[in-house]
């Protein structure tokens, strides 16, 4: 039977909205001048759900242009963790199935990974833009022999304009990934908060410098 990609995408969006509204159980993990990262156990797999919150010195549209999932988009230019991004199937105007290939990390300790996700994008009336993804299977995207398949669970970004501050944007993120392979979970859980803080640092530089 065909997968209901649109239904899976909307269910993931509902989960991420729920994470945003639920203040309970978050424990601080890391804080820099650009972002604060907290975590709590994931409801979906045997790892953690991470929440990140930071203010970026740019309009919501500019931040969105830097992070939105699109082929040939700006993200592959500034985000060192993303090696390749491709759309496998456009389901409708808001939903697509995508494959992201990541670079190796931790000086090669973590080899490149691929993630196949259904991605949901929506802009709300207050100007907030949301991008959400969760892992799916797709017939055009079987696992590749030479690369480890990882799995994202409901994750995404809220790109939120700040009223009266057109050049400042709140970026709120949720991440929960099973990176696959044989890595100890302790290695993964120390690696993810570092990756998130680097993401915000590199994004801050990108919104200031990239020509759009």
TrEMBL record:
GO terms for molecular function: cholesterol binding; cholesterol transfer activity. GO terms for biological process: cholesterol import. It holds the Pfam family START. Keywords: Lipid transport, Lipid-binding, Transport. InterPro entries: StARD5/6, START-like_dom_sf, START_lipid-bd_dom. The keyword Acetylation does not apply. Residues 1-212 form the START domain. The keyword Acetylation does not apply. It comes from the Eukaryota. May be involved in the intracellular transport of sterols or other lipids. May bind cholesterol or other sterols. This is STAR5 protein. It comes from Pampusana beccarii (Western bronze ground-dove).
């Amino acid at each position: 039977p065909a997968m209901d990609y649109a239904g899976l995408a909307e269910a993931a969006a509902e989960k991420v909205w729920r994470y945003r509204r639920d203040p309970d159980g978050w424990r601080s993990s890391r804080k820099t001048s650009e972002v604060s990262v907290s975590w709590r156990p994931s409801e979906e797999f045997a790892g953690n759900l991470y929440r990140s919150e930071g203010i970026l010195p740019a309009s919501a549209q500019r931040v969105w242009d830097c992070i939105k999932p699109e082929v040939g988009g700006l993200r592959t230019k500034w985000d060192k963790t993303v090696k390749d991004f491709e759309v496998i199937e456009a389901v409708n105007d808001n939903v697509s199935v995508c494959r992201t290939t990541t670079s190796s990390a931790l000086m090669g300790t973590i080899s490149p990974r691929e993630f196949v996700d259904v991605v949901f994008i929506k802009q709300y009336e207050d100007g907030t833009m949301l991008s959400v993804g969760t892992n799916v299977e797709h017939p055009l995207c079987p696992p590749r022999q030479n690369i480890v398949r990882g799995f994202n669970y409901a994750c995404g970004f809220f790109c939120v304009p700040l009223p009266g501050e057109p050049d400042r944007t709140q970026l709120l993120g949720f991440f929960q990934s099973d990176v696959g392979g044989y890595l100890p979970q302790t290695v993964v859980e120390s690696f993810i908060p570092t990756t998130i803080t680097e993401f915000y640092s590199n994004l801050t530089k990108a919104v200031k410098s990239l020509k759009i």
